[in-house]
Amino acid sequence: MIDRLFRAHPRAVGEGYFQHMRVAGTVGLRLIGGGFACLIHAVLPGYHQKTGSRLIRDLAAEIDGRTPPDRD
Length: 72
Prior knowledge:
Layout: H1 2-12, H2 17-43, H3 51-64
Helix pairs in contact: 2-3
């Protein structure tokens, strides 16, 4: 149970637990920031006109580029 909850997924993507925590936490914080930018854009359309779409493209490229060592 502990292995499935805490270790299996990070291992499957070629990371340790704390490395995966850092990467996933960073992605989450960036998404939250992008969400706030989109909310600001909803109220003030002149602001953050490209922030949300750029963030999504950048994150998708970064995540797609991360492959586990055994899947190259």
